[in-house]
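Design job #97: recover the sequence.
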């Protein structure tokens, strides 16, 4: 019974029936021309969603984490210096991965709830007159805190410092749900995963790679085999794959992009913004606040709700699962217990969101938190019935 309920975790997200069906296909020979007929539309679609004008798309049988590893191992060498900020669990885990690969990570410690600190990034790059920093890493949407960072701003900071480093962006919980402009922002590698904005099961890392990153690949000496872009690109050229591809997931990816484009990417972004805003209205009506400290940082895919003093966000998540069969996200790392997270990305309608907000409220009442039943739901209803996705997209 509970498996009928939508999930409100910020990935994996709810899988539309059409995508589930598209993934479910008979075996085909990946060395036959049949494979290219599945593969090519998926790759072409990813280029559009990422906003790529040049470079290559790489699809790896992996997850977002594997995408990080592929980005780093294909372009860098042991001891290379990279620059990044730590402001949540996902930026932290990318740093950890880089350190385990023997990279020299210059970390700008940033309070959780804030985003990439542009002035500090620019200062660090300007101070690096020898251009030792080979790459700047940025988490576009920090899923642990519900914070969106300004990637265009990071590009401006890099240009202002006149620094030639590569720019790598973790867009795992933003791409396909929030505007992403790889070409316009000068992103060298963008990393996404199948199970968030693309509404698929986990199992694919989706990367966009710029010509500059491809040039860096030739000199990079970190070991890689399974993730080697060179093997991938050589096989792609002949319509193939260097090993057995997850054909069903790739077919599902093409279907997902078809659905996103049928809705219209601008409408998809507007829908995410609107559902996020409805969530934030509910949070305010509960007398609570998002973990993101200022409105410009608010994520349109996940809201980390700071729970009142003396309350524990993890209690709410556990009760929602055990009593109502509904999944919310727990707080991670520094904010464990202090927040619970509402994922509002992927396939989600007004009706689905309202059910999640109503469930969160029931849990709060059950736990004896000082929240009036219906208060958040009413605030969200009020906003939703007086706004529309299409109008928001047209105004943008
Ligand atoms: C989910 C997520 C990841 C990790 O992706 P996996 O697919 O679980 O490996 C990385 N970064 C961000 C921002 C995420 O939201």
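Job complete. Output follows.
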């Amino acid at each position: 019974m509970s498996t009928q309920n939508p999930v409100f975790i910020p990935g994996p997200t709810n899988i539309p029936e059409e995508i589930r069906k598209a993934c479910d296909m008979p075996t085909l020979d990946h060395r036959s021309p049949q494979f290219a007929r599945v593969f090519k539309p998926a790759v072409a679609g990813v280029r559009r969603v990422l906003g790529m004008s040049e470079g290559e798309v790489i699809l790896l049988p992996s997850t977002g984490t594997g995408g990080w590893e592929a980005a780093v191992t294909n372009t860098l060498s042991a001891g290379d210096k990279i620059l990044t900020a730590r402001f949540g669990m996902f930026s932290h885990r990318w740093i950890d991965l880089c350190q385990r690969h023997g990279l020299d990570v210059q970390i700008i410690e940033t309070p959780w709830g804030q985003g990439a600190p542009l002035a500090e990034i620019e200062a660090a790059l300007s101070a690096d007159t020898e251009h030792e920093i080979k790459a700047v890493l940025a988490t576009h949407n920090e899923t642990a805190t519900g914070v969106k960072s300004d990637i265009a701003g990071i590009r401006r900071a890099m240009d202002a410092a006149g620094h030639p480093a590569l720019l790598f962006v973790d867009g795992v919980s933003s791409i396909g749900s929030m505007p992403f402009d790889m070409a316009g922002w000068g992103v060298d590698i963008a990393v996404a995963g199948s199970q968030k904005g693309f509404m698929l099961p986990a199992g694919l890392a989706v990367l966009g790679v710029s010509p500059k990153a491809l040039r860096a690949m030739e000199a990079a000496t970190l070991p890689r085999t399974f993730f080697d872009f060179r093997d991938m690109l050589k096989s792609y050229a002949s319509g193939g794959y260097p090993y057995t591809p997850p054909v069903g997931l790739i077919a599902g990816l093409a279907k997902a992009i078809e659905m996103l484009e049928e809705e219209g990417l601008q409408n998809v972004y507007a829908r995410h913004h609107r559902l996020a805003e409805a969530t934030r209205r509910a949070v305010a009506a509960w007398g609570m606040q998002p973990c993101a400290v200022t409105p410009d940082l608010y994520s349109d895919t996940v809201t980390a709700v700071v729970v009142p003093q003396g309350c524990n966000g993890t209690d709410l998540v556990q009760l929602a699962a055990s009593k109502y069969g509904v999944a919310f996200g727990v707080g991670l790392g520094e904010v464990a217990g202090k927040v619970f997270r509402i994922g509002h990305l992927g396939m989600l309608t007004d009706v689905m969101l309202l059910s999640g907000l109503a469930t969160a409220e029931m849990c709060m009442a059950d736990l004896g938190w000082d929240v009036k039943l219906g208060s958040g739901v009413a605030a969200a209803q009020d906003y939703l019935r007086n706004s529309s996705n299409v109008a928001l997209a047209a105004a943008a």
